[in-house]
Structures are given as structure tokens and as C-alpha cells.
Amino acid sequence: MSDDITPSQERALYALLDKVMEVMRDDRPFNPGDPAFGTLESSEYFVPEGGGKKYAFTKDAFPDARVRLSTSPDPLDYSDDRLKVRVVPVSFELWFHNALVGINRRVLEQRLDLAGYWVGGGVRYEGNSLGVGLPPAKLLHPYRYRANDGENGRFPVDVELFFLDPAPDDPSGKVRLDRITIDRYYPYLTPAMRKKKREEQNHKKRQTYGYMDLCTGATCPESGVWEGWTKEGPTDVMRFERGQKFDAVRSVSLELGGSCPMVPGQWFWLCSVNEETGTVWKGIALKG
């Protein structure tokens, strides 16, 4: 079964897709209460990583459609404890129970600013049509795209449009819109790959901040856990907030325990606050 789209439905569809592209590509804030998405029906935590949620909406213009948006812990934050990582939107799906007649694919491509190619596995493929489906979905015709960056684009976005081609015995010859998916592209990382990225990131920050010669009394450039040095080597570990002045450092290594005089010293980046738990410094677990 299919329905001819009405002018009001068409306006509602484009307004919804405009909002989704702003969130996914331009990194505008995602607010589940935004009426552009419809009425929030439910939200549930996403497993196994935790932290992210799946949101389900109802849309008055398309009462039978499935509207879903999912969030996830930020893949570009390499912290090991994913429950402490900020959550970002990663995928959207609009699936019509009754496929819509009257949506022009070329207009959709233009509206969403889609390129004439798609990307998979790091490889660019020219063209967008993936060909007709196999039985029993032999009328299903998917088209895959990489969205253009746009004026305010901050993230690569992949889009799939699913149309139903007319059946051979259908005299109308009308194509129907079945489904739209919009996904923010992030490279896939296993926990081991994330650990390696985290180590590379910390090494780079340590080098960058090391060149700044951040000594006692200097302003901390980034919130995190910092390592304090005297002329004899590393003796101290402390958490500093961005904008805070660096303290003096211990004259005797923290691993030896006890109180000691504090002396002017230099501070080097160690790790982010999210990574503090489980980080071992000279045999000491910073937070158990």
C-alpha cells in the first residue's frame, strides 16, 4: 500500500530532514524535545557500550512512520571508560509503513546536498544507485550517498534513500519512497585500537605542552592530570583545571610517600581526567 504525499506532508518531511542534517553534519545540538523531530515516544539506553540512547518519535504528518535517532559515546574521545564520555548523535532512520508517492529523488538529493558518489571501507565509489533488490524485495531500489560538506559541515555523513520501483503490472509507473537513513561517519575502533589512539594522543599532547615550558605559576592550558618535575626528574602528579595556575611540585617523589618541601618545577601532560582511573604512574594507581 502507498499514499500520495500531501503538500503539508512534504513540508514536514523537508523540515525534519533539514533538522537531522544540521545535527548530523553541522554538529548542532540535539534536543529530543525539539518539535522538529516530532513527539518523543520513548528512549532507552543502548548496549553494549552504554552511555548512548535510542530515541523513538511519533510524527503527526506521518503517524505510521518509524522515526528513530540514536546517540553514542563520542568515538573521537579515546577514553577507556565510555560511560564518562560525552554522547553524540550517530544515526537516524525514517521508515514509512505506507511508502510515499510523489517524492522526487533528485529534489531530495538537492535538498540534502548529496554528492554523486558514496564511500565504503574507505573507498570512494562513483554513482549512487545500488541496483534493484533480490527476492522477496525485488522492487526495493537503494541509493547510497556521501553528503557534501556544506557551508557549516563538521562531520562526514552517509545517506541512503530506499525507493520501491513500480511492479511490472502497475500501470501507474509510480516510484515510492520507503525509507531514509542518515549516519554520521566515524572510523571503527576496537578497544585495543582506541587504547593505541589514546596513547598517541597523549604522547602528542605531552610533546606540544612540553615545548611551552609550563612551570610553577603558569596557566594550565587544558584540564587533566599533569606530571610535575624537578631538575632530578618526575616527583609529583596532580589534577589541574584549565585556567588554573600550576602549583609548586614535591621535592621528593610521590611514590616514597609522606610530606616534603615543595619547590618550583615544570609540569607535563599525563592524561585526561577520564583516563585517571586505572592509570599507573611509577607503580602507583592514580585512582583505583
Q: Rg to the nearest angstrom? A: 26 Å
Q: Report the portion of residues in β strands.
A: 35-45%
Count every helix, treating DSSP H or I runs of 4 or more residues as helices: 3
Structural class: alpha+beta
Portion in helices: 10-25%
* Alpha-carbon distance between the two ends: 59 Å
Order of helices and strands: EHEEEEHEEEEEHEEEEEEE
Average pLDDT for all residues: 91
- The geometry reads as elongated
What does the main sheet amount to? 8 strands, mixed
* Uncertain spans: none
Number of domains: 2
Number of strands: 17
Organism: Paraburkholderia caledonica
Protein name: DUF1963 domain-containing protein
Explain what the structure shows.
- This is DUF1963 domain-containing protein.
- There is one protein chain.
- With 288 residues, the protein is an alpha+beta fold.
- It has two domains: 2-184, no CATH class; 191-285, no CATH class.
- It has helices at residues 7-24, 105-111, 191-210, and strands spanning 2-4, 39-45, 53-59, 62-73, 87-101, 117-120, 123-126, 140-146, 157-164, 176-184, 224-230, 233-240, 249-250, 262-263, 266-271, 280-281, 284-285.
- Strands 1, 2, 3, 4, 5, 8, 9 and 10 form an eight-stranded mixed beta sheet that branches.
- The longest helix is centred in the last third of the chain and has 20 residues, at 191-210.
- The chain is elongated and about 90 Å long.
